[in-house]
Design a protein that fits this description.
2 copies of one chain form a homodimer. The first copy, chain A, is α/β, with parallel strands linked by helices. The first copy, chain A, folds into 3 domains: about 45 residues, 434 Repressor (Amino-terminal Domain) (Orthogonal Bundle), CATH 1.10.260.40; about 130 residues, Rossmann fold; about 140 residues, 3-Layer(aba) Sandwich (Rossmann fold). Chain A contains 12 helices and 12 strands. In chain A, helix 1 crosses helix 3, helix 5 packs parallel to helix 12 and helix 8 runs parallel beside helix 9. The radius of gyration of chain A is 26 Å and the shape is elongated. Chain A binds a DNA duplex through helix 2 and helix 4.
Chain lengths: ~350, ~350
DNA sequence: TTGTATGCGTTATCAG
DNA sequence: CTGATAACGCATACAA
């Protein structure tokens, strides 16, 4: 038996012996309806398993859908999960539903997803921009009244609201913290690609920290990796240098995992570490991991607040909200330079 | 200026001076179209910022939407993020897009989300059932040809495919592992509510492990918590008992974090621990954390494979796939019973 | 190569 | 209180 056609309003109406509009009225509690027909309709709806076609409804009503579309690069990175949670909490009160999809950090897939969302006439669009994506095509939507917010990274080709962490300042603070504990050779383990906004900003903060302390920038101390395993390998490479670093700065949570794993594997407890972005169990490690913590939930909440204000008619200029980071001192960042 | 009406096919057609159908043709690369009109149309589309209304399109075409809807209880739990990743990878090859939303483990919200998905005529519905949810309303859709898959937990009131971990066997193995190292007083720190399927199954495995070793079940050794902090407090309570456990079994990843955090805080390295579900940095802890690892990506892939087979016409009976767990021995589960 | 009539499932309008 | 009819934005069938 092939998939049967789904029941429509008309089917329900025929079943009961009323008009389609009457069924519609009952379901939407729109106009008046006698208790008798009401019950009959409800019974028929249950019997047939009728499910209103929201697309047909939307096409008729014309208004935007009550959905917030969110595009993230990676569904399995807890950072974006936390951001999504923050958004969800904030928009639910307004009756909006968050739907999240992945771009895999690929501009083409990001575009396909946003188009899908836009085609559905969502109420708010939130995007963690992929490297190389062009957001000029969103201009019309934004000027047409659709709130568009960039998260974690700024977009390209479109002036709209964005919410980012204080990447540069946070890294500067983290590196300065290491310097204050005597370190002068500090490795930077960053993610890829190197032109990723957050990567660039955090590297810039690292460099400004060094500069402030009159420590020359040494390119051989800056390495990159795609994932945790790569970060571990990169860490190993740094420690094998003729003049190895005495401290490491992790460019994000994944890099932090790789660094910590490699230091544990090689039983090195003398290397100081500060990581950008917190990770679970950081306080349990030995030494406990000192981090420049981001506030992903707050990033989400802030983005939601901005978007909701736009929905309420705020037509002011596009603004960039910077969510502050916070240095959490736990131990790994306060290790001294080993005597030699 | 209020939000202007979005441009439609007709608007584009008027702009160019052709019929709506012609515009439709170029956009869908459907019928033939002269290069001249083609360019004109494309120009007008860009100029007006026209975005086809996918709902109108879909309602006309009638076919299902190319979306896979996924309902999870918590967007910020990395376990579900990994499951989603597995699904995404598997369905993308078929041109399907994964969209994920949160039920917050609330039946009403789960229902609202599934209704929203169903109203959009998604191709596949995947649900991590909330406690207390009734899935009988999905019957019509499932028999109407919509693949419905339950993940991580079985659904209620609907016979359909589901994919779960080997919770009972895994727990049994984990507890038996502790017993093999001499432990007889083993605490169980589980999540809430206690009637949650995974919680019940894992507790059952714990009990069967004890029973097999002729160790009496002691209710005072079974505690529960909502979150990591709660798990830490529960752990503390267990260790304060007059006759405290010498080993702990964590009912899920969050409970594991709480246990590990509390043991670190109280500087207890003599308590053996086995956790259900792996956590990052488990191998770096001291002692490294022995776990009964789940395979969330595989759960996702398996669910996707099942659903795709249904889409291809598989009308065989509903089946339950059990994804095996794997005991990963790292150290914490092999600690001996302290001498006293 | 292009246009016209028609219908998808729903709701708004207006009449009964 | 209820129903007939038109309309939403788009695609199919057929004609030109």
């Amino acid at each position: 038996m092939a998939a049967k056609r789904r029941p429509t309003l008309a089917d329900v109406a025929r079943e009961v012996g009323v008009s389609a509009k009457t069924v519609s009225r009952v379901l939407n509690e729109d106009g008046p309806a006698s208790a008798a027909t009401r019950e009959q309709v409800l019974a028929a709806v249950a019997k047939l398993g009728f499910q209103p076609n929201l697309m047909a409804r939307n096409i008729r009503v014309g208004g935007p859908d009550t959905t917030v579309g969110l595009v993230v690069p990676d569904l399995s990175n807890p950072f974006f999960g936390a951001v999504a949670s923050g958004i969800e909490d904030a928009v639910r009160e307004r009756g909006l539903t968050l739907l999240m999809g992945s771009s895999a950090d690929d501009p083409a897939r990001e575009r396909a997803l946003t188009d899908k969302f836009l085609g559905r006439r969502i109420s708010i669009l939130m995007v963690v921009p992929s490297v190389g994506a062009d957001h000029a095509p969103l201009k019309g939507h934004r000027s047409g009244g659709l709130p568009v917010v960039f998260l974690d990274r700024p977009g390209t080709g479109l002036a709209t609201d964005s919410v980012v962490s204080s990447n540069r300042e946070g890294s500067h603070e983290g590196v300065t913290h290491l310097i204050a504990h005597g370190h002068r050779r500090i490795g930077f383990v960053g993610d890829l690609p190197t032109k990723l906004y957050t990567r660039r900003e955090r590297l810039a903060g690292y460099r400004s920290g060094l500069q402030e302390a009159d420590i020359p920038y040494d390119r051989s101390l800056v390495v990159s990796a795609h994932d945790q395993e790569g970060a571990a390998a990169a860490t190993s490479g740094l420690l094998d240098l003729a003049d190895p670093p005495t401290a490491l700065f992790a460019g994000n949570n994944i890099m932090a995992l790789g660094i910590v794993a490699e230091l544990a594997r090689s039983k090195r407890k003398d290397v100081a570490v500060v990581a950008f972005d917190d990770v679970s169990l950081a306080e349990v490690l030995e030494p406990a991991l000192t981090v420049v913590a981001q506030d992903p939930e707050e990033i989400g909440r802030s983005a939601a607040a901005t978007a909701l204000a736009r929905l309420d008619g705020d037509r002011s200029r596009a603004r960039t909200v910077t969510v502050p980071t916070r240095l959490i001192v736990r131990g790994s960042g306060e290790l001294p330079v080993p005597k030699r």
